[in-house]
Design brief:
Blueprint lengths: L2 H22 L6 E5 L4 E5 L37 H4 L31 E7 L6 E10 L2 E4 L4 E4 L5 E2 L9 E2 L1 E11 L9 E4 L4 E4 L9 E4 L8 E2 L10 E4 L17 E4 L9 E3 L1 H10 L7 E6 L7
């Protein structure tokens, strides 16, 4: 073969390689010049290997919507544990509210809806003259003890479901607390209206009087009415229990002057009596805004209320 022909072939071969290199350059790989047995030509150098693309192409995915592995999504929050998923309660914040144990007040079922204070005065039976008085306050919808249990005296003839004037019994039932607290001594710090007794303050117990079973100031109403300012220590302080208030006409009369007062250490004519320190604690605790009630009965009869 002629040397001139061989040179021509080498030149042609270089042109072909150059064209091929230009086409390969479109993929972004770096280009370098190489000598191929003659004039230098442009050829594609071996590309350095880039890190793999973290985003798989559709052709790389084995299925249309693969589930990523935990290492493929490190920023995703971990799945809740089984205990956190059960009933949705394991991760729910605590309210701090628990149901207190049942007590005498929580068992009452006839209290007005707006009442949030109640006194429960009870004894072991109908014919006894001593018993227990407890106070309860409704807190967050539940009845809770307030001041603790207190020893109590009641009528000489115990509790009665059908009290009559002068029978020396304490009436059973549920009653309001009167709107005014009274006492021979100065106001001990009650939240009710307070009246310090003076001469000629009476409780009318005359069944024939138009002011029967109410506080009056003036002349003696007669019929065994009580001179309140002279009755000590019982009326050092007292609250009125609204038994037979307003008066219900009856024959015999249903009774009058049922108070919560200081104990004289013996049975009463029908009132409830506490040691003076206990009574003052109860009177200070009572709040007219709580619409308080008092329930009075033998233990066996509290279920009525």
């Amino acid at each position: 073969m002629s040397p001139h022909v061989s040179a021509a072939r080498r030149a042609l071969f270089g042109v072909v390689l150059g064209a091929l290199a230009i086409g390969l350059a479109s993929d972004g790989a770096p280009l370098h010049w190489f000598a191929v047995s003659g004039p230098p030509v442009l050829a594609q150098a071996p590309a350095t290997q880039d890190p793999p693309d973290p985003t798989p192409s559709p052709s790389d995915s084995p299925s249309p919507s693969p589930s990523p592995s935990p290492s493929a999504s490190p920023s995703r929050a971990p799945s809740p544990s089984p205990s956190a998923r059960r009933a949705g309660t394991a991760t729910r914040p605590s309210t701090g509210t628990t149901t207190p144990p049942a007590n005498l007040a929580s068992r009452l079922h006839t209290l007005p809806a707006g009442t949030t204070q109640v006194i429960v005065a009870y004894a072991s039976g109908y014919g006894v003259t001593t018993g227990t008085l407890e106070t309860f306050q409704k807190v967050n919808g539940f009845w809770q003890p307030a001041l603790g249990a207190m020893a109590m005296r009641l009528g000489t003839n115990g509790f009665s479901d059908s009290k009559a004037e002068g029978d020396l019994t304490t009436p059973t039932g549920m009653y309001r607390i009167g709107g005014t607290v009274y006492g021979i001594a100065a106001n001990p710090g009650v939240r009710y209206a307070y009246h310090q007794l003076v001469a000629d303050d009476w409780w009318d117990e005359n069944v024939a009087s138009s002011s029967y079973n109410s506080f009056v100031h003036g002349t003696d109403p007669g019929g065994g009415s009580e001179a309140l300012w002279q009755t000590s220590p019982q009326y050092t302080y007292f609250a009125v229990i609204d038994y037979n208030i307003p008066v219900v006409a009856a024959t015999p009369a249903r009774g009058s002057g049922i108070f919560l007062h200081v104990s004289a250490g013996r049975a009463t004519a029908g009132c409830l009596a506490l040691a003076q320190s206990d009574l003052v604690a109860v009177l200070r605790w009572l709040n007219p805004a709580a619409n308080p009630r008092i329930v009075m009965a033998p233990s066996s009869a509290l279920g009525r209320y």
